[in-house]
Amino acid sequence: MSESALAILKNTFGYDTFRGFQEQAIAEVLAGRDAMVLMPTGGGKSLCYQIPALARPGVGVVISPLIALMEDQVEGLRQLGVNAQRLHSGIDYHHQIQVEQALLTGHIDVLYVAPERLLTVSCQRLLDQVRVNLFAIDEAHCVSQWGHDFRPEYLQLSRLKERYPGVPRIALTATADQRSRQEIIERLSLNNARVFIDSFNRPNIFYRIGQKKQARQQLLRFLQKEHPGDAGIVYCLSRKRVEDVARWLSSRGTKALPYHAGMPAEQRKVHQARFLKEQGVIIVATTAFGMGINKPDVRFVAHLDLPRSIEAYYQETGRAGRDELPATAWMVYGLQDVVLSQQIQSRSTASMAIQRVEQQKLDAMLALCEVTRCRRQALLNYFDEPLEETCGHCDLCLEPVKTWDGTEAARKALSCVYRTGQHFNAAHLIDVLTGKKTAKVIQYGHQHLSTFGIGQTLSITQWRSVFRQLVARRLINVDTDGYGALQLHPTCKPLLKGDQTIHFRKDRYEQPIKGKAEERAKGISDYLHDFG
Ligand code: ADP
Ligand code: ZN
């Protein structure tokens, strides 16, 4: 290991030791070879390119997908005394000239560039006049068309290899399943790159996913009981919901602030600054919030809506507990989420191939929700990192779910979908099953069906659970018409015909986990010791 890398770590960044395989990845780049780095969010990817950029003569060029991300990184580096700059569309002409001058006179060590700018003729000309010591491709999963953050400009980055054959390239990402990994390697021509894969396990995060029943109340109880006065992020799908939830939470005495792309930039800035500086601020946000926000003591991340993939879920929950102290990833979801997510997915205008992958990703996310054994095992398994033992530190390990034989109920539900012509949503089907003579039931004459009233042994909540699990397991499809009509999927045949049995999870609405996160943490020190 080069002395200077360690010296830079200590003198510039103020850390004593490298983390994970930072040291090896840095050595690789210093030796002039390509590398690919997969580390969970908060793992310390930035140092893997910042240190070699500083250690080698010349300038390290970093490609980053978001202006906010660049601004953040540059600001952070400048505070450490590093000559860092950036070029992106948010920089005015005057400033740009200054940056270019500084670059040409060798006064910049780390330069962040937006991908669309990097391959412009003018930028190429500029870079031809300086000594580039490495290219870092941050958030490299943006090159993957299957991923959740696809950026077409990233595809162009494959040209870097031919254009700058002698310059090492390092690609970094926190989210990449096997498929995306392969895609990144192919698209960026990284076939000869050494791949460094850090564990994706975040042992300090406690995972829990429950069923939704008055989501806001559930959230409030969770905050009051387990995270009073803690900073955290609440994710919602829509801007309107962000506003509603933020308002409601503040009216209940928490310091909650909204954040979404539809708000004035100025206000967003203020909210973000308060989140970073004040104690115990809760940001209620769409997924627009989070990338590049480096707040180590986020104690919880809550989801009130279902993320569209495990990658997205993992990335968002990964913002909790970067300081490695106990944190909670909390989520509630229900039938409506499952129906809605299927609808959004099926309305996608993407090509068939992409839609298929999106569907698979959503299915995997649903499977994680519905899993009956260790949540962390399921999560890590998805990232091809099998965990031998159950973790002992997730909701399902602490309190295993019970299952029940739902064969009879499932058959009644499926048959009701069939008898009503596959035109109705779950609410109506449940009315039929439980024998309610609503106006709609009468209008369609459904009180005369053989399935009318055959489901009175189960409550409405239980029926919703049955339908949710049938949809989540793709035995039932959701129609794309916007009304959420349920339709039979061919795979349900054996079940309908009585050739197959099915077990459902027994839902839990009440919070099974007692005590504050801190207290719970005391009991898990052994666990953290084993994994940490
Ligand atoms: P990522 O980009 O992987 O999400 P960052 O590079 O932003 O993560 O690093 C996350 C946090 O960990 C930062 O606060 C960073 O300063 C810190 N960090 C990184 N490497 C080390 C190290 N070797 N020792 C201590 N802290 C580190
Ligand atoms: Zn577990």
Description:
By secondary structure, the chain is of the alpha/beta class. It has three domains: 3-197, Rossmann fold (3-Layer(aba) Sandwich); 205-402 and 512-517 and 525-530, P-loop containing nucleotide triphosphate hydrolases (Rossmann fold, 3-Layer(aba) Sandwich), CATH 3.40.50.300; 403-505, Arc Repressor Mutant, subunit A (Orthogonal Bundle). The protein is built from 25 helices and 17 strands. The longest helix has 19 residues, at 352-370. It is elongated. The structure holds adenosine-5'-diphosphate (ADP) and zinc ion (ZN). Zinc ion (ZN) is lined by residues 374-376, 390-391, 393-394, 396-397. Adenosine-5'-diphosphate (ADP) binds next to helix 3.
Task: Supply Rg.
Answer: 26 Å
What strand line-up does the widest sheet have? 3-4-2-5-6-1-7
Q: What's the pLDDT, averaged over the residues?
A: 89
Question: What is the overall shape?
Answer: elongated
How many domains make up the coordinates? 3
Under CATH at level 1, the class of the largest domain stands as Alpha Beta
Tell me what portion of residues adopts beta-strand conformation.
5-15%
The CATH superfamily title of the largest domain: P-loop containing nucleotide triphosphate hydrolases
User: What's the β-strand tally?
Assistant: 17
What separation lies between the terminal Cα atoms? 25 Å
**pLDDT below 50 for ≥5 consecutive residues: which ranges?**
522-532
Query: Into which percent range does the helicity of residues fall?
Result: 40-55%
Structural class: alpha/beta
Largest sheet: 7 strands, parallel
Please state the second-level CATH architecture of the largest domain. 3-Layer(aba) Sandwich
Q: How many helices?
A: 25
